[in-house]
Amino acid sequence: MSAWIEGRVAGCRQWTQSLYSLQVDAPALTFTAGQFARLALPAPPGSKEAMIGRPYSFVNPPSAQPHEFYFIILPEGPLSPRLAVLKRGESVWLAPRANGFFSISETAEAESLWCLSTGTGIGPFLSMLRTDDPWVKFRRVVLVHSVRYAEELTYRDAIAGIGHARTGAFHYVPMVSREADRDALAGRIPQAIEDGRLEGRVGLSLTPENAHAMLCGNPAMVEDVQKVLATRGMRRHRRKEPGHITLETYW
Ligand SMILES: Cc1cc2nc3c(=O)[nH]c(=O)nc-3n(C[C@H](O)[C@H](O)[C@H](O)COP(=O)(O)OP(=O)(O)OC[C@H]3O[C@@H](n4cnc5c(N)ncnc54)[C@H](O)[C@@H]3O)c2cc1C
Ligand SMILES: NC(=O)c1ccc[n+]([C@@H]2O[C@H](COP(=O)([O-])OP(=O)(O)OC[C@H]3O[C@@H](n4cnc5c(N)ncnc54)[C@H](OP(=O)(O)O)[C@@H]3O)[C@@H](O)[C@H]2O)c1
Q1: How far is the CA of 232 from the centre of ligand 1 (A)?
Q2: pTM of the entire structure?
């Protein structure tokens, strides 16, 4: 099998100066919601490798094409600025298989699922929450999107669609840390758990008895949230040793 399959850019959306979504036609590539693809472009001449590839979570549910990826443009990064200037019809390469274990099948049984994300880490949750799997397994689902500025609270239409489809079972909590926002909680996720504001907002408790937490995005957030949840007796979930926390770090 060849190392890469060729996809075509089907569309794009720029949300802010640095946040971008890319739609890619690559029907041969299948995945489980929560997994990531590896996107690649040819490396500059003289590079050691022929291609520069990076992992990106699927945002679309597996039942919908084209594939969609949501990313931040890191101006010094070798790949993200190049992905952001691709035009409709241009080629982008993908690894032939999706990867990752950040999926609903890898969570423990619980009453409620807490999806805690920073920045672009909301992507895999948008994929998972647009399948039936979480709604069959959990009675309630909370999606927290924690960003620096209110304009980074993206995908509001997709989130509203999930709310309409799952009335009464879905709670969306926006958080903004670097400016005041009327609808969002202020500050960071770990503090909002510690001081009870997050549970107060949704009216559910986040405890080992009733919750499973999935964490995605900034590795410092993932670490700090695990520390707070550990004080409540919550620990990493593993197949051989069931727990309460599943995680994906982006760097
Ligand atoms: C499993 C997995 C899934 C990923 N999915 C996504 C995704 O869906 N969307 C996405 O934007 N990125 C995602 N990433 C990160 C992505 O693979 C790239 O690292 C990122 O796009 C930057 O690529 P680059 O070549 O421009 O710079 P790199 O050289 O790869 O990164 C430069 C630096 O930027 C920072 N950084 C990397 N990614 C992010 C990020 N997402 N947000 C903030 N800072 C970051 C880190 O400090 C990193 O060292 C994922 C990473 C992993 C491991
Ligand atoms: N967002 C932008 O405008 C922007 C633009 C260009 C480039 N970048 C670069 O992109 C990278 C990341 O940007 P980003 O804004 O997507 O992601 P981010 O830095 O991960 O910030 C997203 C949210 O996570 C919070 N956070 C950070 N550390 C945390 C921790 N230990 N525990 C809990 N929450 C934590 C942030 O709070 P705080 O605000 O309190 O840190 C913010 O609310 C950085 O390298 C940045 O320089 C960002």
Answers
A1: 30
A2: 0.97
